[in-house]
Amino acid sequence: MSAVTRLTYLRIALVVVGLIAIFAVYPLFQLWPSGWSWGHGHSHYPMMIVGIYATLGVFLLLAARDPLQHRSLIWFTVWSSVVHGGIMAVQAVSDEAERGHLLGDVPALLLIALVLAWLMPKPAVAAA
Protein backbone atom coordinates (compact mmCIF):
# COMPACT_ATOMS: atom_id res chain seq x y z
CA MET A 1 0.00 0.00 0.00
CA SER A 2 1.40 3.39 -0.92
CA ALA A 3 2.11 6.00 1.75
CA VAL A 4 -0.61 8.28 0.36
CA THR A 5 -3.19 5.48 0.38
CA ARG A 6 -2.18 4.45 3.90
CA LEU A 7 -2.56 8.05 5.10
CA THR A 8 -5.98 8.34 3.46
CA TYR A 9 -7.18 5.15 5.16
CA LEU A 10 -5.69 6.34 8.46
CA ARG A 11 -7.68 9.57 8.21
CA ILE A 12 -10.85 7.58 7.54
CA ALA A 13 -10.13 5.22 10.45
CA LEU A 14 -9.51 8.16 12.79
CA VAL A 15 -12.85 9.71 11.83
CA VAL A 16 -14.70 6.40 12.24
CA VAL A 17 -13.06 5.60 15.60
CA GLY A 18 -13.57 9.19 16.76
CA LEU A 19 -17.27 9.13 15.91
CA ILE A 20 -17.71 5.74 17.56
CA ALA A 21 -15.98 7.02 20.69
CA ILE A 22 -18.19 10.10 20.80
CA PHE A 23 -21.55 8.66 19.82
CA ALA A 24 -21.58 4.86 20.24
CA VAL A 25 -20.11 4.03 23.65
CA TYR A 26 -23.14 5.10 25.70
CA PRO A 27 -25.70 3.41 23.40
CA LEU A 28 -23.62 0.21 23.47
CA PHE A 29 -23.71 0.30 27.28
CA GLN A 30 -27.51 0.49 27.06
CA LEU A 31 -28.08 -1.99 24.22
CA TRP A 32 -25.59 -4.69 25.23
CA PRO A 33 -24.56 -4.16 28.85
CA SER A 34 -23.09 -7.65 29.26
CA GLY A 35 -20.62 -6.90 26.44
CA TRP A 36 -19.87 -3.25 27.15
CA SER A 37 -20.84 -2.07 30.65
CA TRP A 38 -18.82 -3.23 33.65
CA GLY A 39 -20.04 -3.30 37.23
CA HIS A 40 -23.42 -4.93 36.64
CA GLY A 41 -25.29 -1.61 36.42
CA HIS A 42 -24.40 -0.45 39.94
CA SER A 43 -21.41 1.70 39.21
CA HIS A 44 -20.36 5.21 38.24
CA TYR A 45 -17.88 3.62 35.87
CA PRO A 46 -19.97 3.82 32.65
CA MET A 47 -20.34 7.60 32.65
CA MET A 48 -16.64 8.09 33.44
CA ILE A 49 -15.75 5.89 30.47
CA VAL A 50 -18.25 7.72 28.24
CA GLY A 51 -16.61 11.03 29.18
CA ILE A 52 -13.07 9.78 28.60
CA TYR A 53 -13.85 8.14 25.26
CA ALA A 54 -15.93 11.08 24.01
CA THR A 55 -13.00 13.37 24.76
CA LEU A 56 -10.59 11.02 22.99
CA GLY A 57 -13.01 10.88 20.07
CA VAL A 58 -12.97 14.66 19.65
CA PHE A 59 -9.17 14.66 19.58
CA LEU A 60 -9.07 11.77 17.09
CA LEU A 61 -11.35 13.78 14.79
CA LEU A 62 -8.94 16.70 15.07
CA ALA A 63 -5.99 14.36 14.43
CA ALA A 64 -7.66 13.12 11.23
CA ARG A 65 -6.92 16.49 9.62
CA ASP A 66 -3.17 15.90 9.83
CA PRO A 67 -2.30 12.50 11.31
CA LEU A 68 1.45 13.00 10.92
CA GLN A 69 1.30 15.96 13.31
CA HIS A 70 -0.63 13.85 15.84
CA ARG A 71 1.40 10.64 15.85
CA SER A 72 1.79 10.62 19.64
CA LEU A 73 -1.99 10.82 20.16
CA ILE A 74 -2.56 8.01 17.66
CA TRP A 75 0.10 5.81 19.30
CA PHE A 76 -1.41 6.63 22.70
CA THR A 77 -4.75 5.41 21.35
CA VAL A 78 -3.12 2.23 20.04
CA TRP A 79 -1.22 1.35 23.21
CA SER A 80 -3.87 2.44 25.70
CA SER A 81 -6.38 0.32 23.77
CA VAL A 82 -4.06 -2.71 23.97
CA VAL A 83 -3.49 -2.21 27.70
CA HIS A 84 -7.16 -1.49 28.45
CA GLY A 85 -8.32 -4.45 26.34
CA GLY A 86 -5.72 -6.74 27.91
CA ILE A 87 -6.69 -5.83 31.45
CA MET A 88 -10.37 -6.27 30.63
CA ALA A 89 -9.68 -9.65 29.01
CA VAL A 90 -7.98 -10.90 32.18
CA GLN A 91 -10.82 -9.58 34.32
CA ALA A 92 -13.48 -11.08 32.03
CA VAL A 93 -11.80 -14.48 32.17
CA SER A 94 -11.48 -14.37 35.95
CA ASP A 95 -15.02 -13.05 36.64
CA GLU A 96 -17.73 -15.22 35.15
CA ALA A 97 -20.24 -12.35 35.29
CA GLU A 98 -18.06 -10.32 32.91
CA ARG A 99 -17.45 -12.98 30.21
CA GLY A 100 -19.62 -11.14 27.68
CA HIS A 101 -16.85 -8.58 27.35
CA LEU A 102 -14.74 -11.16 25.56
CA LEU A 103 -17.18 -10.70 22.64
CA GLY A 104 -17.81 -6.96 23.14
CA ASP A 105 -15.46 -4.22 24.20
CA VAL A 106 -12.31 -6.37 24.50
CA PRO A 107 -12.10 -7.34 20.81
CA ALA A 108 -13.32 -3.86 19.79
CA LEU A 109 -10.40 -2.19 21.57
CA LEU A 110 -7.89 -4.67 20.19
CA LEU A 111 -9.28 -4.21 16.66
CA ILE A 112 -9.00 -0.43 16.95
CA ALA A 113 -5.39 -0.78 18.12
CA LEU A 114 -4.55 -3.18 15.31
CA VAL A 115 -6.11 -1.04 12.56
CA LEU A 116 -4.55 2.23 13.71
CA ALA A 117 -1.11 0.64 14.23
CA TRP A 118 -1.24 -1.01 10.81
CA LEU A 119 -2.23 2.24 9.10
CA MET A 120 0.36 4.42 10.84
CA PRO A 121 3.02 5.54 8.36
CA LYS A 122 6.41 3.94 8.73
CA PRO A 123 9.01 6.20 10.43
CA ALA A 124 10.87 6.86 7.17
CA VAL A 125 7.65 7.95 5.45
CA ALA A 126 6.58 10.11 8.38
CA ALA A 127 9.97 11.88 8.37
CA ALA A 128 9.72 12.69 4.64
Which key terms come to mind for this protein?
128 residues, mainly alpha, DUF6632, transmembrane, Cytoplasmic membrane protein, transmembrane helix, membrane
Number of discrete domains: 1
What does the main sheet amount to?
Answer: none
**H/E series, N to C?**
HHHHHHH
Mean pLDDT: 92
Number of helices: 7
Transmembrane segments: 12-32, 44-64, 73-94, 100-120
Pfam families: DUF6632 (PF20337)
Organism: Bradyrhizobium pachyrhizi
Protein name: Cytoplasmic membrane protein
Characterization of this structure:
The protein has one domain. It is built from seven helices and no strands. The chain is mainly α and 128 residues long. Helix 4 packs antiparallel against helix 5 (71-94) and helix 5 (71-94) packs antiparallel against helix 6. It is 76% helix and 0% strand. The radius of gyration is 16 Å and the shape is elongated.
Outline the secondary-structure elements.
Layout: H1 3-23, H2 25-31, H3 33-36, H4 45-65, H5 71-94, H6 105-119, H7 123-127
Helix pairs in contact: 1-4, 1-6, 4-5, 5-6
In short:
This protein is an all-alpha fold and 128 residues long. It has helices at residues 3-23, 25-31, 33-36, 45-65, 71-94, 105-119, 123-127.
